[in-house]
# Entry
Amino acid sequence: MESALDEFLTTSVFAFALVVVRMGTAMMLMPTVGDSFISNRVRLHFVVALSFLLFPLVMPAVPKPLPSTIGLFTLITMEFVIGLFFGVMSRIFMVALDTAGMVISTMSGLGNAQLFNPSLAQQGSLVGAFMSITGVVVLLSTDMHHLLLMGIVESYDLFPIGALPDNNSMADLMSRALSESFAIGVKFAAPFIVLTILIYVGMGVLTRLMPQVQVFILALPMQILISIIALMMILGVGMTYWLTQFEQGMVFFLRSAGA
# Structure
């Protein structure tokens, strides 16, 4: 009886540690909970609470008897890699908003206005920081963060404990996610690219008609004003488009990883 209890406690503690490693790594990187403006203590409590609820489901997959010390460190390393891979993939789709914001800032004449982007924990464009924070609000308001949490739970079916996906498949998925994220950002900012081209064409025609007028000095405030008005008009549609692409991208990633 005592040996069975000792084995149960040892297995439970090890299963809990494995869940904390995978879930903690993923949640420290994924959007919403993993953003830099969330307190580390809050994130840690969130990870521990979810891991405590999830580890009974993982216990049947824990190898018995427990491997040696090297085997234990190997399993922990694999769990860390899988959690890192999942967190980075979810973050890549979030970067599409920063890409769109950078393009919009450049096209609207606000490219030099840089400030700290709390979502990415680095300097970024003014519009990019605004859109990144808006994206977090949209994810939370539409319960899209539940998809991320469900993805972490279902990752144990895709990546069982002790099994590491093929490196080539991981690299291929990541490169495809990066290209898709960049394409989403450019498509989001496409109206501003067209609008800026039309403004520049108009300034060129005005310069030819009235060479004595300082066109660029007069046109820059107008360009900023028109871009802000355009952003107000398309922000709702653009965020809906990004949210749809985010959901499709995460679902495609989970299906491809499990293939």
Remarks:
- Residues 90 and 148 are 8 Å apart (CA to CA).
- The mean pLDDT is 79.
- Helices lie at 2-27, 40-58, 69-108, 126-141, 145-158, 167-209, 215-258.
- Strands lie at 114-117, 122-125.
